Structure formats: C-alpha cells, structure tokens
C-alpha cells in the first residue's frame, strides 16, 4: 500500500520513453508521489552539461497512470533544475532518483554519465539523490532483478537520509548469475582506452567515431568494478566537492616567482 | 627564447577563435611546442559531455603563426580525447592547458564548465593539466594581467609535476585592482540559485531561459571565492575520483533488508 507522504523526482538520460525509467517509476510509485522530468531524446554521455545558449521546452505528457510526467528538451541536469524551480517551485522533493540507466555507470563513468550527473545535481540542490544503472545496454533489458534492491535502497535513504554533499551511485551486474547482495564501494581506478574509428564521408572528408575499451587497473577488492565482477550490487557514495584536499599542502610548498 | 623540449596541448570551451585561447597560446608558446585542438563553436556549460551518438569532425586550420591548430565539431572533452588519440597518437603531451575562459570557473562551476572538464580529461589521460578562467565574460576581455601568472604556474607544473589524479583550477579576479599574488585554495561551498525566465513563442507555446544568482554560503578564508574577492589568483587542486570516502563507513552500518 503506497504511503503518499514522500514526494519523489524521477529523471534519466536515456529519455522519457526508455524501459529503464519505466521500471524505476514502477518501484518508487510504491514509496510515494512520483513526478517524472526526463529528456525528450537520449542524452547519454552528456555529463554535467547545462543549456545556457538556447531556451528550453518543458511539456506535460501522459504516459503512465498515476504519475505526473514532463518531457524536457534539455540535458539531464537541466531536467533537475527545471523540476526544482518550475514544478516543485522550491518545495524540494524528498528523494531524487535517476535511471535505471541502460548500461553501467561504475568507476570513471560517473563523470561522463548524464544519469549520474542528474543525481549529482539533485545533491547540489540538497535533495537526497541516487543514480541506478544496469549492465545491459539493450532496449529489451530485463530490470526485474533490480527492483527489490532499488526499493530497499530508496527506503533506507528516505529513512536514514544522506550526508550533505553526498549521493549514491548504484550499479547492477548482468543478470547471468544470482545477485549476492549489496557492497558499499569506492570508485575503481579505471579508465577508457579510447580509439576513434576514422571514416570518409561521400565527399571524401574524414570523420571520427568514438570507440574504446574499458581498462581496470585497480586490483582492490573494495572497488565497484570488483563488486560487479563478483555479482554484487555496487553502491558508491559520490561527492561534488572536487577539491583534491590532500594536494593542498604540497602545492603550498611551491615557490611562485611572481 | 623558446625552449622547445616541452609539447603542450591547448584546449578551451569558448571556441577556437576566442580571444582567451589566443592569450593562452601566446604564453605557452614561450614554454614549448604548441598544439591547439578547440571546439569550432562555443561550448560553455558542456561539463564533461562526450559525443557518442554521432561522428566528429577534426580539421586542421591556420590561425596563429608557428602553432599547429585544429578545430573540432565536438565538446571540449572530445577535443582532448581526439588530440591524445589522433594527433599525439599516444605520445602524450607534457602539459594540457585549457582556457583562458571568458568568465570564472570557481567553486561549483568546475562541474558545469567545459574549460575545466577538458583539463579534467587531460588529468584522466595522465597529462599534467591546468584550467585558466578570468572574471570577464566579454570578447574584449583584457588578459594581459593574467599572462605572467599563467607562465609561472605552467613553469612550476612542468618542473614539479602534479600528483596522479590531480589537476589545477586557476581563476583570475577582475582587473579593477592590482593582483596580490597566488592562493592555494579549496572549492568554496557555493551554488547557483537558479531561476528560469518563462516566455511565449509566436505560437503561444512556453519556453524557458536559464538564469540564476551565484550564492556563496561559505565563510572560510581558505576558499577560492574568498581569494578572488580579495584580489588573489585562486589555485584549487581538483580530483576526478568522486568517491565520498568519508561516507563509506556510515553506509556500511546500514542494514539492508534483502
């Protein structure tokens, strides 16, 4: 039975029609009153981009029963800003959830991901925020196995809160083996080894497609990559203070010749 | 006299024709061999966006004497990835500098800024990287006062290196008073209080322009906002590990009912 005291904002980066956001809506509808603001087109890889050089559209749509829904012409971060400012009008929601992303956002992907950047923006707005991603890129991805974890994690976040400036990045491994449970992790030290495939257009001009291989150089068993490889759901606390505090003292030892 | 042993990558987000990147090129030409890869159009606010759904163009251009230059159809982060992969071909440059941005990128702006995201991407690629920004949004901005600081900071970075995973975010205050020197800082706890101006198009449909006011709630005298308000050049070490390490232990105390 739905307890309607909580107000929950749902966003994503795959667009308002993606199966992943449908699955997420189905879960959080059981926890409270849901408002969806999602991009009107796919916005994967948009990172923390915002739209400043052109105006935005925000249109109410009907897609799923009992859910207030809007599509937005902007980025995932724009969706959060517009939701807070124009829909919730300063009465901030109790929870902001983003996803479920079609594809992992573990490790360094947190910085490229529109899904996670929407959750980061939620946290910047002081809303308890969680991003969810699943290791299946396809439209046919089966999110059923994720649902009880999402409900439990959201329930805990609503009950316990999150520290100011902290949000959660939750990733689900492929569902080829049973899930072993939840691991609280740190972001693995991994990166993309990029390549660009060079092609020629019909006018003999070159163009490039980004491709790449994910390379994990981190042997630690406390990382999200390790957890996912070992069939755990990874939960990484994320912060948006990007200061490398540990580097301040050594920089203060530099002698600037000004 | 130019010492040509260093190879330096220059990027920005205001586009290849911006006066800010011209000023930066003029400084780093004195330190080594310069390669410029910059967006062919303004990319402010693009954050860490990458282009994955469409191909990229990368074209060699001639703009400034003695400098290898390319314009790119992608984001600032795309520029760095293409430079490393297609121009330097894995022989990474000794330094990546981004900017000079027309406008500040202090505090939380680091996460929205294309200029800073390009420098972050340089650091992800293990290249010592620095982003420069100046508190003047105009095309006519006078970057002369920034130049000796940029040269000194780049010289120190080339001599001392930077810790793995750390880059620098350098901001210059308005030039209405003399600069007092350099302060090593942390990112201020500040945010944008957004507003969206609502308008109607000629077809009576609503649209929204993002506006906002920068709000600093941080009284600390070790922040970049304080330094800039007090006429110092602020230097913040930035990291791309977004893990909130301090939050891991409290999350491990949660009892997940799975």
From TrEMBL, chains A, B:
It is found in: Cytoplasm. It catalyses: a ribonucleoside 5'-phosphate + H2O = a ribonucleoside + phosphate. Its cofactor is Mg(2+); a divalent metal cation. Keywords: Cytoplasm, Hydrolase, Metal-binding, Nucleotide-binding. One of its GO terms (molecular function) is metal ion binding. Its main location: cytoplasm. It comes from the Bacteria. This is 5'-nucleotidase SurE.
